[in-house]
Design brief:
253 residues
């Protein structure tokens, strides 16, 4: 488990992740610091909606008796509207996916949270070739997204029972790659073959750039290697500092 740590208004803030998601963690810490200038975030009641996810600050004490504030996120293994987890990896991964998608496509993001709903054609949930299309929101809490079959022979004959409206976090259970496009603007259409995005276009049917799984895997491997190199260098410096301190103490004696 990786620990990210920052000082915010003289308070120690930590978050735990399984992956070296330094950019996402840094962005979250920066937002917390900005919000802390306007409101008290250190009260065990604070809730932050940052991008797609929700985060909380909980007071803790470490093994040495030092107080710190832990960043928690919603727990998608259980009911995320009611439960929290100390491991922010799933939420940060989704945040990274969505920021990367918007950035590569050079689009202007339109916020969607994990609680916002998506209209889903039930027959599409386990289908291979599907698409997502974003329209204007019908009401608050509606993302505007529709998830359906790419080639639907019954498209004009569906009944209301053929659809269900679900919060966007439910896509973690059957099509996690669909979470990638949720911050894309109205008019966006994304096409998927199983859990791999194969096309992305804007409201004028103009193709948008997006990364393939192979590209993302290479980048993730490089980020992991860079992170491990940083850790190794920090450990080396700490060891050298400790040895120098011990040598100085010995010479004084």
């Amino acid at each position: 488990m990786i620990t990210f740590e920052a000082k915010i208004r003289e308070q120690t803030v930590r978050m735990y992740s399984d992956l070296p998601l330094k950019n996402a963690a840094g962005a979250l810490m920066k937002v917390l610091a900005q919000v802390s200038q306007k409101t008290n975030i250190f009260n065990n009641k604070f809730v932050l909606c940052f991008g797609w996810g929700y985060f909380f600050l909980t007071e803790r004490t470490d093994d040495k008796g030092n107080k710190f504030w832990l960043v928690q996120s919603t727990d998608y293994r259980n009911d995320p509207t009611k439960t929290r987890t100390d491991n922010v990896t799933p939420t940060l991964v989704v945040q990274n996916m969505q920021m990367e998608c918007v950035s590569v496509a050079k689009a202007t993001p339109e916020p969607t949270t994990m609680r916002d709903t998506v209209l889903v054609l039930k027959a599409a949930k386990n289908a291979e070739n599907v698409y997502m299309n974003r329209q204007e929101k019908a009401k608050d809490g509606d993302s505007g997204w529709y998830f359906g079959l790419l080639d639907d022979p019954d498209e004009d004959n569906h009944k209301s029972d053929d659809y269900e409206r679900m919060p966007s976090y439910k896509f973690m259970e059957f099509r996690p790659e669909a979470l990638r496009v949720l911050q894309m603007p109205v008019g966006t259409v994304a096409v998927f073959d199983k859990n791999e995005m194969t096309a992305l276009v804007d409201g004028d049917d103009k193709p948008l750039k997006f990364t393939k799984a192979e590209e993302r895997n290479k980048l993730a491997a490089k980020q992991r290697a860079d992170f491990e190199a940083e850790v190794a260098e920090a450990q080396k410096r700490a060891k050298m500092a400790a040895e120098a301190a011990a040598k100085e103490e010995s010479s004084e004696e």
